[in-house]
Design a protein that fits this description.
The chain is α/β, with parallel strands linked by helices. Helix content is 49%, strand content 12%. The longest helix has 25 residues, at 88-112. It is elongated, with a radius of gyration of 27 Å.
């Protein structure tokens, strides 16, 4: 009974825990919406391609340099909290600490529980590993190809509706056609 009490106390603590943001300040309310301004103008050619599998946006090198120059003149409005939140280092450190916590918890459980309890704990950990693997497999399931999302583009445009899908962005050398940017959409004939 004395050995089960800590498990019940931990379960009660986890069930009543309230998530908190102790290390991140509350976000400041955003000011009134700012009217977007045009910082760059170029030409866009939309080209249907029945052989493409994903939409591609081709940007010439000169247009990319002009876009970078225009964006360099805009004031940066990303706060310190946003920069930390989008940091890959933060993700790596969080994963490292999760690994260490699970490792130390496993060692602690293995040393504190009798041999009969160890088998039960091992079975529970194995079950959690199987459930986690199943969740990863189902969440990482590949969706349809990119052309699937773009196939109703003509019908939706004639109805005045929007269509969305993935876009690969490519930087291409400056061409003689002077088209600026080119959007290649994978539209397959029915």
């Amino acid at each position: 009974m004395k050995r089960i009490l800590p498990f019940f106390a931990t379960a009660l603590l986890l069930a009543t825990a309230i998530p908190g943001l102790g290390d991140i300040a509350k976000p400041k309310p955003s000011p009134s919406p700012v009217e977007p301004k045009i910082v760059f103008h170029t030409r866009l050619a939309i080209v249907p391609d029945s052989k493409a599998y994903e939409a591609r946006l081709q940007i010439s090198q000169s247009d990319l340099q002009e876009l970078r120059a225009a964006l360099a003149n805009l004031p940066g409005n990303e706060s310190m909290a946003q920069r930390v939140t989008h940091s890959s280092t933060r993700t790596i450190v969080a994963g490292l600490f999760m690994f260490l916590s699970l490792s130390f918890a496993g060692v602690w459980l293995a040393r504190s529980v009798q041999s009969r309890g160890q088998k039960t704990i091992a079975a529970l950990l194995m079950g959690m590993a199987v459930i986690s693997a199943a969740a990863i497999i189902t969440q990482a399931n590949a969706g349809p190809p990119g052309s699937y999302y773009w196939k109703k583009l003509p019908q939706n445009l004639s109805k005045g509706q929007s269509t969305g899908g993935g876009v690969d962005i490519m930087v291409v050398p400056d061409g003689s056609d002077g088209s600026g940017m080119k959007l290649i959409i994978p539209i397959r004939p029915d």
